[in-house]
Amino acid sequence: PRHDFMFDLGGEEGPRMEGALQWTDGPGEYIRSYVNGVYTRDGGTHEQGLRTGVVRAVRNYIDIHDLKPRGVSLTPDDLREGLSAVLSVYHLDPQFQGQTKEKLNNPEINSHVASAVGANLELYFNSNPTTAKAVVTRAILASKVRRASLAALLQVQRMTAVIVSAHG
């Protein structure tokens, strides 16, 4: 783990939420989510809200502090690269998809979680600029790796096409 922080995401309105975020050197993202203590294996609207809030907070930090790198486009996946998170939402009327409650479908939860995560993460970043800059640096590296990987794939495809046409 590189950086970790916990939030009590509760606000005056909406359901009670708790979350913990951590950026690691690992590839991709790992999110584990719960609704009323029930593990939601396939995520749902609360997980989408978490992703949206994280992306919004990192983008805002980049924009406010003029950290946007030249010639590098950062995708939402780049901004969440290395993220590990746990999210727990408590809702009076959860609407699940499937009998085994694998996925939450309450549309209003998305915006509640996105707002809470975004606001709390922005506050954290502004109070911990070293951590925020490390997360931004991680995202920039992820973008460069993604672009290099794509360039290598295209090169292999071109070489394969040349070999096939030479033998065809």
Question: What does it look like?
Answer:
The mean pLDDT is 88. It is flat, with a radius of gyration of 19 Å. With 168 residues, it is an alpha+beta fold. A hairpin with a 7-residue loop joins strand 1 and strand 2. The protein contains four helices and seven strands. It has helices at 45-64, 76-80, 107-127, 129-167, and strands at residues 3-8, 16-23, 30-35, 38-39, 83-90, 96-97, 103-104. It is 51% helix and 20% strand. The relative contact order is 0.21. The longest helix has 39 residues, at 129-167. The strands form two sheets. It has a five-stranded mixed β-sheet, covered by helices on one side. A two-stranded antiparallel sheet has the order 6-7.
General form: flat
Strand order of the largest sheet: 1-2-5-3-4
Question: What structural category arises from helix and sheet content?
Answer: alpha+beta
Order of helices and strands: EEEEHHEEEHH
What is the radius of gyration? 19 Å
Please summarize the sheet with the most strands.
Answer: 5 strands, mixed
* DSSP summary: helix tally: 4
Low-confidence stretches: none
Question: What is the number of beta strands?
Answer: 7
Percent in helix: 40-55%
Termini gap = 50 Å
| Strand composition percent | 15-25%
Return the average pLDDT rounded to an integer: 88
